[in-house]
């Protein structure tokens, strides 16, 4: 019973923080709400006794949100940080809602077509060595190349963001 109550509390915190994250107009508040979402997800991992995933969620994403704070301060103008910019127009809000609904329909159709909701999860514990080999291996269905690609892509994004920030300062 305690697990269900805790899950409900975490679910409410996650959903409320996610909604506040996408509806607020202030970037620092959005990053803070996103931090609450990520901590809530870590709480669900701990609730499911996935301590490694919970610890990884906190350590990786807490650092990631810290980087969002740094880039928000560096890349966004002072007027935006102070909340003096115009609000999002209703036409853009409607377009975003339609795009989100279209995405929901596509994902739902894919889940229905593949029968994902009827598949039963095997009650087999996977050894940590096998998980580690899957993460750092370079064979088929192993993930070292996607991790390397993402790290190079993120580095390019950081460099591009710094270049954009430097061009604004010169003007």
- Return the string of H and E elements: HHHHHHH
> What coarse outline follows from CA principal-axis ratios?
globular
Based on helices, strands and strand pairing, what is the structural class? Answer: mainly alpha
Per DSSP, the total helix count is 7
Return Rg in Å. 20 Å
Through-space gap between termini: 60 Å
| E-strand count | 0
Largest sheet: none
Mean pLDDT: 81
**Percentage of β-strand residues:** under 5%
Task: State the main characteristics.
171 residues, mainly alpha, 7 helices, 78% helix, globular
Description:
Helix 1 runs antiparallel to helix 2. The protein has seven helices and no strands. The termini are far apart. The longest helix has 27 residues.
Topology:
Blueprint: H1 2-23, H2 27-47, H3 51-75, H4 78-81, H5 90-114, H6 128-136, H7 144-170
Helix pairs in contact: 1-2, 2-3
Provide a short characterization of the protein structure.
This protein is 78% helix and 0% strand. It has 171 residues and is mostly helical.
